[in-house]
Amino acid sequence: MESLHYLLMKSHAMLSRSILSKANKIGLTSGQPKILDFLLKFGEADQKTIAAYCEIEPSTVGSILLRMEENGLVLRRQKNGNRRSLYVSLTEKGKISAEKLMDIFNEAENIAVSDMAEEEINALKITLSKLCESIKINNESRNE
Question: How many Cα atoms sit within 13 Å of 107 on the Cβ side?
């Protein structure tokens, strides 16, 4: 059997490729699906929060958001007169794109787990959540 890191990278690449090819057909580019997913789930947020949740560098999120704003998917505005932080929310066009994207995500996930029992899927989710938490805790302790 292949190593864990290889299997994780390969499954991520295969799933991402499938999702991005369909996302491109609805006018989205790389990076935008993560942000649309986040904003649909959590609503308005600042750029720093979006970057942290999506595991994208803040400067990269800024350029992705600029393009999304130009395409009418998001609105960026100051909140309570705070000039240091822009808050981002979905426009109506962005909500429609995000909902289409959820269908793309669901289809890709269903294909990926089509040979798995419900118990296996739940166990995989639990295991991957634990893996993410372990990596996060380890990285935080190294940065102290």
Answer: 12
| CATH fold group of domain 4-139 | Arc Repressor Mutant, subunit A (1.10.10)
Q: Please, are residues 121 and 113 in contact by the beta-carbon 8 Å criterion?
A: yes
In the block, residue with structure tokens 């560098």 = 57
Cα Rg for the chain, rounded, in angstroms?
A: 17
Summarize pLDDT for 32-45 with one digit per residue, the tens.
999 999 999 999 99
Which residues, including other chains, have CB under 8 Å from residue 125's CB and lie 6 or more apart? Answer: none
Instruction: Give the model confidence (pLDDT) of 73-108 as tens digits.
Output: 999 998 777 767 789 999 999 999 999 999 999 999
Query: Does residue 90 contact residue 39 with C-beta atoms inside 8 Å?
Result: yes
Task: Judge whether 108 and 122 are in contact, CB under 8 Å.
Answer: no
